[in-house]
Amino acid sequence: MAQMSVEQFANELGLLPAVLLEQLKAAGVKKTLAEDSLTEQDKAQLLDYLRKTHGTTETRSKVTLTRRQTSEIRKSDSTGRARTIQVEVRKRRVLTKPGMPAETETAPEIPKPLEAVSPPSKEPVSIIDAEQLALRNEEARKQAELMARQAEEIKQKRERKKAESASNINKASIEPEKATETEASPTAIKPGTATPAEAEINSPSTTAKKTETGQSTNDTQAAATDGTLHKPAVKPEEKVDKKKKQAKQQVVWKDENTKKRGVKTRGDLTNGQQGWRTRRDKHSKPAHAEEQNMHAFSAPTEPIVREIMVPETISVGALAQKMSVKAADVIKVLMKMGSMVTINQMLDQDTAMIVVEEMGHIAKYAEIDNPENFLADHESTTGEAESLPRAPVVTVMGHVDHGKTSLLDYIRRTRVAGGEAGGITQHIGAYHVETDHGMITFLDTPGHEAFTAMRARGTKITDIVILVVAADDGVMPQTIEAVHHAKAAKIPIIVAVNKIDKPEANPERIRHELVAHEVVPEDWGGDTMFVEVSAKTGQGIDGLLESILLQAEVLELKAPVKTAAKGVVIESRLDKGRGPVATILVQSGTLNRGDVILAGAVFGKVRGMNDENGKAIKQAGTSIPVEIQGLSEVPEAGETVLVLDDERKAREIALFRQGKYRDVKFAKQQAAKLENVFDQQEDVKILSLIIKADVQGSCEALAYALHKISTDEVKVNIIHSGVGAIIESDVNLSLASKAVIIGFNVRADASARKLIASSGVDVRYYNIIYEAVDEIKAALSGMMSPDRKESIIGLVDIREIYRIPKVGVVAGCYVLDGIVKRSSLVRVLRDGLVIHSCELDSLKRFKDDAKEVREGFECGLSLKNFNDIQVGDQLEIYEIVETARSL
C-alpha cells in the first residue's frame, strides 16, 4: 500500500504541514515531523475524527437537479444577414442530503421535550409538532450544506496561496459547525418558554434587527414570548419571505447564475431572477418589485475597451458588429469626419482604424483567416529536396527589327519571324534547344515600345540576357530599356552585335554607345561579353552558344528536381477548342500530368501538357517551357504557378484571391468614376474602349500603349479588357457605355456579329499593334478642339464720317494695306490704342454692296453696335483661323 509523508498529504489537501500535524494530534495519530509517513489507517482515523467533530458521521446521499432551457437569438453575420441560432442552456446542481445526525451528547435533548409534551399536563405545551420541527431541521441542514459548499469553492480558488489557506479553511470548517449547532440542534422545550428555533422564526425582531448580535436577538425573542401558552402560528408567506431573505444573504452560484439569469428574455418565466424557477405565491410580491442584492451597491462600470482586428476592407455594418455598437453610431462618427456612408458601404483599412480609435477602442491590422499562410508551410516542406544542375534560361531582348527572332530561328533551324504579323514579334516565345554543348531555354520577347511589361516579365524569370543590337542601326530606345531591365534585376548581359554581314556594319560604334549606358566590353576591362553574329549567314552563332554556357557555369545554376513543381506563367490565352491555355516555364521540381496547380486567382488540374512544338508530354522538368490546359480561367501573365496536394485547398486560396482582387478592382472603378466626374467638369473628352486580344500579354500591352497617348484634354477609358473572341456580352456592354470594340488577333462569334450588324456598334480589327495605336491616336486627335489663331489681313484709314437717319454712322475709308472682307472682325485704333473690337455691319463700294475691297481702294462701312468713330481713326481688319491639332 502506497504511503506518503505528512508534508505531501498537506500539499495535496492545500494545508500547511503544521496545521495538519495539529489535526492529526487531536485525532490521536502520533506524528511530530513533516517527514513522517502516513498510512491509510492514519488517514481513516483522521477522517473519522473530522466527521465526529463536524457532526457528519453517516454517508450523504446526493440529489442531482438538472434543468434545460431552450431559446432563440438572432445574430447578424459579417455580410449583414440575420440568422436565427438555437441556444440551449443546461444547468446542473448536485445537492448532498445528509442523514440524520449521529447520537452525540446533545442528541438526547431532542426527544426530552417531546416526551414531556406527549402526555396531557397542565404545564404550557408548545404548538410545534414533530413534523414542523423535522422540516426546520432539514432546512437548517441545507443551509449548512450550502455554506460548506461555498467554503469549498473559496478553498479551491486559494490553493496557490499557502500562507492564507490555513486561516481560510479553519474559518470554513468552523462556520458550518456553528451553523449546525445554532440552527440544526434544537434545545429542550421548557414549560412557558420558547425554543431558540421558535424564537428565531416567530419573533418579529428577527427581520427588523438583522444587524444585532445573536445574544441580543435571543433576549428580545425570549422577552416577547415569555409567559405565553400559545405561540403565534407561522404563516406560509413568512416562510417564503424567510427563504428569500436567506437567499439574499447567501447568494448561491453568484458567478454563473446571476450572469445567465440577470436579464429577462422572451419566454423567461423567472422574470430574470437568479436561482431555480419556482411557483410564486399569490400573496407574494412580483419579482420586478424586489431589487436584487447584487445590484444594490454596485459601482458604475468602466467603458469596455476592445481590440478590433481590422482587415483590408470591411463594411460599416461588420465594423459596428466587431465593436458591439449600433451601425448608426459608426455612421455618425463617419459623418463627423466628413464621410457620408451607408451601412453596406465598404471602408478601407486606414479609415476603419481611424473610426475604431475615434470610438475608444484599440485597432490592429488583421492578419487572420488568410489561407495563403498554407503556402508558406508548403514551400518550407518542398524546399528540402536535393538541388541538381539545370539548364540556363536565356531571354533575347533588343529593339524592334534588330533580328532577335531571326537569330533564334537560325539556332532552332526554324522560321518563326515569318509567321508573325508584320514580321515583328508580339508574343513571348519559349523554346528549349538541345545543342552540342548542352540544353538552353530561350525566351523571345517583343521589341516594340508597347511591350514593356512583357520585357520586364521576361527579365524576372531569366538567368542570362542576350542583348541584340543591329550593327547598322546602333543603340535605340528599346535597347536602352532592356539594359535598364537587366541592370535592375542584376542579370548578366551578353551583347550580340547582329547583322555583321552588312557592308555598313560598325561594331565599334555599338561598343562606344553602350559604354555610355554602363555596359563595358571585356576587351575594355569590363565584365560584358560582346559577340559579333549574323542571323543570315550563321557567323558567330557557335561562339554565342559557348558564351551562354560559359556564363551559366559561372552562375552554378541549380534547382530541386524530385519535388512539387513551381514555375511562372509566361503567356496565357483562351483557345476555342481547349479552353484556357497557359504557357508555363518550370523553374523547379517536376510537373506531371494530373497535378493540381494554383496560378494567382486561378486553379485547376493539368489535363493536358504539350511542349513548344505541340507534342503531348507527360512530365516536364526544370527550365522546360510547356503549354498546359485544364485551368478554371485564363491566368494573368507573370503569376507564380504552384503544385498543391489538395484541390480543395487550391480552390479556397483561389477564391480568397479572387475576392481580394475584386475589392481592389471595385476601388479602382470607384476612383475612375470620381475622375470622370472631374473630367466632365473640366470638359475633358473621353474615348471609351473595349479591348479583346488573343493572349493576355498582347491585351496588357495594347491597354498600356493606349493609356500612354491620353492627354489632359482627351483621354482613353478602357472599360473592359479580356482574352478570347468578341462575344455578345461585349457588344451589349459597348451599347450601354457607347464604347468602341477593338479586336486584336480575334474575331466576333456568330451571335455577336448579328448583334453588331443590327445595333451598329463600331468594331475595329487589328493584327499589328502599332496600327491599332495609330488609329486610336488619330481618333483622339479628331476629338481635340482645333487651335484658333488671329490673322491680320488689312488696315483701313477713316477719312470722313456720315450720319444717315435710320442707318447710323457710316465711315468713308481708304484701304491702306491688305484686304477688307465683309465677314471680317475689326479693332478700332485711336492714337495707337485699341478702343473697341467688333464686327463689320456693312461694306459698300459706291452704292453697291461689296464682298471685299482691296488695297488702294475707297469704301464705305459701318460697325455693328458701335457709332463712336472719328476722322483719323484706323481700323485693323483680322480673322480667326482654326488649325487642326494632333497628338
From TrEMBL:
InterPro entries: DNA-bd_dom_put_sf, EF-G-like_DII, IF2_assoc_dom_bac, IF2_II, IF2_N, P-loop_NTPase, Small_GTP-bd, T_Tr_GTP-bd_dom. GTP binds at residues 398-405, 444-448, 498-501. GO terms for cellular component: cytosol. Residues 277-286 have a biased composition (Basic residues). Residues 392-540 are annotated as: G-domain. It comes from the Bacteria. Pfam families: EF-G_D2 (PF22042), GTP_EFTU (PF00009), IF-2 (PF11987), IF2_assoc (PF08364), IF2_N (PF04760). Keywords: Cytoplasm, GTP-binding, Initiation factor, Nucleotide-binding, Protein biosynthesis. It is found in: Cytoplasm. GO terms for molecular function: GTP binding; GTPase activity; translation initiation factor activity. Residues 141-164 have a biased composition (Basic and acidic residues). Residues 202-223 have a biased composition (Polar residues). Residues 389-558 form the Tr-type G domain. Residues 98-124, 141-291 are annotated as: Disordered. One of the essential components for the initiation of protein synthesis. Protects formylmethionyl-tRNA from spontaneous hydrolysis and promotes its binding to the 30S ribosomal subunits. Also involved in the hydrolysis of GTP during the formation of the 70S ribosomal complex. Belongs to the TRAFAC class translation factor GTPase superfamily. Classic translation factor GTPase family. IF-2 subfamily. This is Translation initiation factor IF-2.
